[in-house]
Specification:
Elements (H helix, E strand, L loop, with lengths): L3 H7 L1 H19 L6 H21 L4 H13 L11 H13 L9 H5 L9 H13 L7 H13 L4 H29 L8 H4 L2 H9 L4 H16 L3 H14 L10 H5 L12 H20 L5 H16 L7 H13 L4 H22 L5 H18 L9 H7 L6 H8 L16 H24 L4
Helix pairs in contact: 2-3, 4-11, 5-7, 5-8, 8-9, 9-12, 12-13, 12-20, 13-15, 18-19, 19-20, 20-21, 21-22
Amino acid sequence: MLGLTNLVRYNKTFFLVIISSIALYSSFAFDLARTDFTKLILLYIALFVFAYQLVEKSGLNFKFLVGLGLLFRLIFLLATPNLSQDFYRFIWDGQMLLEGFNPYLYTPDQIMNQAGTKIPLAQELYTGMGALSASHFTNYPPLNQLFFALAALFSSKSILGSVIVMRLIIIAADFGILYFGKKLLEALKLPSERILWYFLNPFIVIELTGNLHFEGVMLCFLIWGLYLLHSGKWQWSAVVFACSISTKLIPLMFLPLFFRWFNSDKTKKTPEFEGMTTLILFYAIIGIITLLSFLPFFSMEFIVNYSKTVGLWFNDFEFNASIYYIARAIGYFISGYNEIAIIGKIIPVVVLLIILGLTFLRQNNTLQKLITSMLLALACYLFLSTTVHPWYVVTLVGLSLFTHYRFPLVWSLVIVLSYCAYSDPIYKENLWIIALEYSIVFSAFAWEVILKRKLPVS
């Protein structure tokens, strides 16, 4: 294995790869506007090429590569996110909590229209988050709100200070994924080096540490919970799984998939509870802890506001969609106007039917099969969604490490094409670019999920 001294002395190529990666990440952090799509995509592709060299070709010591992953993340530590403005809303919600407001009951517009608002840096945050975010209630679950509050608590007078606190939380979560992901890979008798395709993936570094999205925190709890489940500690697994849901709601769709796992021979790990009894208790723990996390914010007004906000992702918002855009075009052809109100109601039903099919038609009796079903369920959900922001793919990338599928890694490369929309002054998506992105993704998906299974085994 090579150390840093040997790397410089005997392998100048990989030394240059590392130096170049540092330079490109620095450019990403401090010298890039999301309107400059050409520069963005060139930097991104180059970083993927370098990551491939480091993970697959360098032969470097595992700990040394982990150190590089940390270094790449620390480059962003003092940078203000330049590809997403969501962090302004994160800080706003945290400040709301510290000032004693329930963030689920007031939009930023409503607060700013009140005389004498006490929210620190209110005008800067309000302007930074943009009119769309300011006009809607928050959609971030309670545990996520806690992280926002911590950022505001430790740095209430500085936006950059709050950014640094959130960034450290996200980096810590990535190390949690590294730790539990590696242990889970070893438990499943899979190559532990696979975890580096998460930890050194430029998509992960940029979208999480760089752009401050908390999908990595949710994924950390999810992988930790799966590791505990594999270890037979299903009660603690349920607790951690609830934390995952309370960070981002996405893991809710995975709950039906546990049916087969708990009703297979795997439940012999817990002989005092078997089959349906264990499953019901598992669900009960998840449900109780999730509800308790929402309890401090609970009111009928909260239920109305939160359900309405979540519904926006099905009935109003549109970005980087695939199958939905085809359905929308058909709707335009038939009726002459956008049928999102109808299509948005059909999508959840279709997704539910797919999840039920994966629950009862697949033998999810091993953890690897269970994770594979999770991956397929989430992939189908994203394929059907009206809105697919780049960071939504983070969970797919993490789950794919424990399966035989690599199409999420392909998607993590080509999803940068979605940023083309921001290069237009009036924010207009180029459907040809989106078609290119999904042509590549669907080709990889079809090859791995459908075609390879039909090939004869040699």
